[in-house]
Structure formats: C-alpha cells, structure tokens
User: What shape does this take?
Amino acid sequence: MNAPERSAAFQLDEDSGEVKIVYNSDTKISNAGTFTLNKEDHTVGNLFRMQLLRDPSVRFAGYMIPHPLIHRVELRIQTSSSTVSPVEVLSSAIEDLNNETDHLISQTTDAIEQWRKENDQGGMGQF
Amino acid sequence: MPHQRFPKVQILDLAPHEMRFILSDTDTSMANTVRRIMIAEVPTLAIDLVEFHDNSTVLNDEYIAHRLGLIPIRYQAQNSLKGGDCNGAFLPHQECVCYERCPRCSVEFEVEVDYDKENAKRPEGERDMPITVTSRDLLSNNSQVMPAHFLSEEEADEAHDEGISIVKMGPGQKLKLKAVARMGISKEHAKWCPVAVATYRFWPVVTINEEQCATLTLEQKQELVDACPDRIIELDEVTGKLVEAENSWDIATFTEDLSNTQRAMKQRPEDDDFVTVEQATDRFIFHVETTGAMDAEEILMSALRVLKDRLNYLAQEVENLKDL
Assistant: This one.
C-alpha cells in the first residue's frame, strides 16, 4: 500500500519537477557547496568522491545518502581557492572519469581480442 | 586529463557463461562501480506481462507468471552466436512511442500445451506420465530472441529436462498463455539481473622480511608455512628460505592465522613481522558468472557503456548548472 514503485529508485519524478542535480552554495564557508544528485546511489557517489579527492585544489570532498529509502546523494565539495569553483572541479572530475572509462573500454576490447587470439577461439558463443 | 588514471585489463579466463579478469591501476571506487553496474544496471530482456487464456494446471496463474519472469532471455544479434547486448536493439518500454507494445520494445512468447494432445503423440513406454512444460515450449515471435535453456554444454548433458522446467501437467490439464518480454534493469526487479555472481577480490602482496627470517630455525619456518590455511608461502628445500607460492594470488584468503602465529614467535612484540600479507589497493581479481542471458564479456562491455552514458548525462547536467 505504501510501497513506492521500484522504478522510483532510478527514474526522475518529472511530475513533481525533480531535476537530476541541484547545487546549493554554502552560505557560511567560502568556495564550498553541496550538490544534490537525485535518483543516484553509491555507484556514482563513491566514484565522484574518490576522483575529487585526487584533485589538489579540492580541500574537502565527501558524499552521503541521508536516508536509504530516499534515493538521493549529497556531494559536498570545498575548493582551496576562489579561482576554482566546486562546479568546475566536479566538471573536471567527471571528464577525467569519462576518459578513464573510455580507456577501460578500449583496454577491455583489446584484452578480449588478445585472449581470443591466444586461445584460438574460432567459433564464438554458446554451443 | 590532469588526474586521470589509466586502468589495465588482463583476462585470465573467458567462457560464454563466466569470465575472470584482473583490473589494475585503478581505484576500489572504479572496481566497485563496475561491479555494481554489472549487478544492477545492465539492461536485459525478461518476461514482464503474461496473458492467460487457459490454465488448468496445479500451479496458479501468478505462480506460473513469476516463474516465466525469472527465465533468462537471450538476444542474439544477426549472424552471431553470442548472447548479445540487447541495449541497442530494443527500446525501454517507457521511451517507446507505441501505444502499448510493438516489436521495437518488446518480444512476445506463446505457450500452448495440452496434456491430452501431447500424450497421444508419445510412445507407449512414456504414456500417462506427467508432462513437463519447459522453456523449450516458449515460442518467440522474434527469431533473434529466445530463452536461455542451459548455461553450458555440461549443464545440458546433466539435466533431466530439455530446458528450464516451468510446470508439470497431468491428464486433462491445459496451459495456454501469451507472455511479453521487455527490457529492464535489475534495480527494478531481480529477474533482469544478467549475472549470477559479479565479484572481485584484492590482489595479495606478500612481503618476506629476509633479515627477520634469517633469525628463524627451519622448524619455525615450517611452522609458519603450516600456519597458513591457504598455503601461500612455501619453504624452498634447496636454500631453506621462505618463498611465496606461485599461485598465491589465486588462493590467498587474508586470514589472521599467519599474523597470530608470528606474534607468538616473535622475540619482542615490537619486532617486524617475518611475512606480511596485505591487500593491494589498485589491483583486483574479478569473477563474473552469467545466468545465460548474455555472454560474460558482453555484460562487462555493456556495464562500461552504461557507465559512460551515465557520466555523459551527469556531465551535461553539471554544464547546465554552470550556466545558471
């Protein structure tokens, strides 16, 4: 009766005007802000956080899921100088991850081809 | 570009139904993300809607519908024998512009089994025994899509039936239904999960402190070798030194036995350990086993493509934030 639709875990609720990302600049601390990613989970949250921590211009990067039943990730970023804003730093992090994924895709394709060649797989697939 | 990693992939074993590979030069977050996507967000086909015309079997409608949903559905692209990625070939149900369903977003299966008719066709020896309705009885309207009856040849040889059994029927019972399969992800229902297992272990780093080991007698060294239940260190007979086993990376289980034994053996508690086994933070041994719906390498490629699409989408959204 109260159970939400399973698709509510990954589909944005457009009827209530849900947007994917919302940014709230921190009023009390300079160069800091919180990104709210709707309908996301640890898959993306942890990935972004670890990538942000590799950036030397990031002073603070952390993520949390305030409640496990509400599918929302809050990503808090503070940069060390006002020349670089949290939005820019996040954008750069996503770009790096994108390039890393591209690299991974090409590496996997090559590795599979190489394995096939070495093990002489003539016919592909199941019996 | 500035802080990008360059991961490497090395395949250990590749079969249609399972694969093992080593992912290195990347972080645990990437390994975990790939694992989570393989389990939860790779799109597959599964039966989602069942219309019953006749069911006089011992199982009720929803029971049979539940079983039908869990049957893995294979998509084979043109001229390919691989259990392929259905992501490009079909549209998700919500995105399709059709009214209810169409060949672009769904596949229809029909099952029609009448015990009395089937019984008449069977040879004398098998008359009047229960008939098993299996996944072989699911007739598809799309020649490239059919149920995955077995995981591998060995399983096919060992099985009693010719496919996944759905329901057993006796005299006078009929089953007639139409099932519609749609594309979905495991987050919505576990029937859409393409993997049975997708897991990774850490690569063990075994460091043998030669200085400390020199202070040990042969019996003590043998004691250390015996302390490991997974046998990752060996005693070299020629030199009398402790060495790492050849296949230590495959069998290491990171138990505490070795460190406990060493603590008892050390002369002073603050001494260095003789042998340390640690988990590498950038090297992972992945093991992926499929359900038969997709080939293992297709699942990995599909997961990486899903990740890429997700990153592109989020990058676009962040760009929109910049403009505000």
About this structure: Residues 296-323 of chain B form the longest helix (28 residues). The radius of gyration of chain B is 27 Å. Chain B touches chain A through 59 residues (CB under 8 Å).
